[in-house]
Amino acid sequence: MATIVFSAMALEALINDYGIQNSGRRYFKKHLDRLPALTKWLIFPRLGRGSKSMRTGGQTFRGLTTLFALRNGLYNAPQN
Question: pTM for the complete prediction?
Answer without folding.
Answer: 0.84
